[in-house]
Amino acid sequence: MSRLFMFEKPLGMRDTLPGLYETKSIARDAIKSEMKRWGFQFIETPALEYYETVGTASAILDQQLFKLLDSQGHTLVLRPDMTAPIARVAASKLLKEDLPLRLAYSANVYRAQQREGGRPAEFEQIGVECIGDHTISADGEVIALLISSLREVGLPKFQISVGHIGFVQTLFQQILGTEERAQALTKYLYEKNYVGYREHVKNLALSSIDKQRLLDFLKLRGGEEVLSFANDIIENESGREALSQLQQLWEIVVAFGEEDKLKFDLTLISHMSYYTGIVFEVYSHAVGTPIGNGGRYDLLLEKFGKATGATGFALYLDRLIEALGGVSEETPMTCILFSDERRQEAYTVAKERRAIGEKVVLQDINGVKNIDACTNQYTDIVFLIGKAGRGS
Part of which pathway (predicted)? Predict the structure, then answer.
């Protein structure tokens, strides 16, 4: 084996060292506890799924899928997201009662990277899916839970941007006339390339009024007042229905007392093509990309034979840890250094301390080459060396 492959990892894969692992574990446990308090139940799905089902339903670009063949020749994928696998489980095994499902997960997902750029190919998501509820109340509930989860984990400053896929699609198709032309303009929103968007609009064969409507669209960011401005731009009932849903969402978030965390951004577009209605992203000032996102996906379950509404969100745990300030300080840990004569005593002391919640390392003195290094590594050192009564 060459030295390169002995120490290198596949593109986008990462090792998680003890400090980061512990930090992620604390954050994960806090969020999971909050989700459970809101009545969401955790499930697990396989890391491998069939390409023809979850792979094609996931809305992740085909070139980002990790594919392999099983012994029967079926194409498998490493799950690229969690929403599609949970939709599969819900449609096949859980949606048998006329009651909404509240499901949660914490799992790694896999998306292949084409070039090195610091982006992970394997990363952990923790999130929820509310399945079987068409009401805007469900959208408001998951947003309120998102806010509550971030507070629970100790993130002091964050903002949620909310848009509506239906509003953008309706406005663009109404003005541009064809889906192809609408998608060409939408691409600039995906990339958040607003300079390119403006240049594209200026070169379109449209009336000056319609061009101005498309340029004014970029200004639709802010508080509740944005919905009134948007109503002046849209000209059909489908678009106004989208705005009505956003107004309902605002009132629900106000009822939760969380309106200070929510801003409207009607230019918001998700790369996940299965979203059909309200969409949102959550940002922290410490991270340049969203630390979480979500929205409504009322058509996804139809791909698995069930027609029902659904909404949810996912947090990117690594980005959340970055927003929290990175790896936290190490928790206090005691090391008991013992000699052969006092082994039993050391084991007894360690057991007693662990029983009251302390973290304790047992270390045979014969296995330590540098006592000073050992002393620097642990918060406290207990020496049980030599005959009883002689050690400290």
Answer: Amino-acid biosynthesis; L-histidine biosynthesis; L-histidine from 5-phospho-alpha-D-ribose 1-diphosphate: step 1/9
pLDDT at 391: 47
CA dihedral 195, 201, 203, 205 (to 10 degrees): 180
CA angle 56, 60, 66 (to 5 degrees): 80
The reply to whether the predicted model has a pTM over 0.85 is yes
Domain range summary for the chain, segments of one domain joined by +: 3-323, 334-384
* DSSP annotation string for 31-77: HHHHHHHTT-EE----SEEEIIIIIHHS---GGG--EEE-TTS-EEE
User: Residue 291 — φ and ψ, nearest 5°?
Assistant: -90, -5
284 φ, ψ to 5°?
A: -120, 145
Pairing of strands 159-164, 262-265: parallel
Q: How many Å apart are CA 132 and CA 149, to the nearest integer? A: 22
Instruction: Round to whole Å and give the CA distance between 312 and 125.
Output: 12
Cα torsion at 96, 100, 106, 110 (round to 10°)? 70
How high does pLDDT run on average in the chain?
Answer: 90
Phi, psi of 130 (to 5 degrees): -105, 110
| pLDDT score of 272 more than 80 | no
Strand duo 41-42 + 101-110: pairing: parallel
3-323 is a CATH 3.40.50.11540 domain: no
Dihedral sign, Cα of residue 74, residue 79, residue 83, residue 86: positive
Nearest 5°: phi and psi at 50?
-75, 135
Structure token pair of residue 200:
């594209």
Q: What is the Cα 367 distance to its own chain's centre?
A: 43
| Three-class DSSP labels, 133-199 | CCCHHHHHHHHHHHHHHHHHCCCCCCEEEEEEHHHHHHHHHHHHCCHHHHHHHHHHHHCCCHHHHHH
334-384 matches 3-323 in CATH topology: no
Measured between alpha carbons, how far is 20 from 143 in angstroms, rounded to an integer?
27
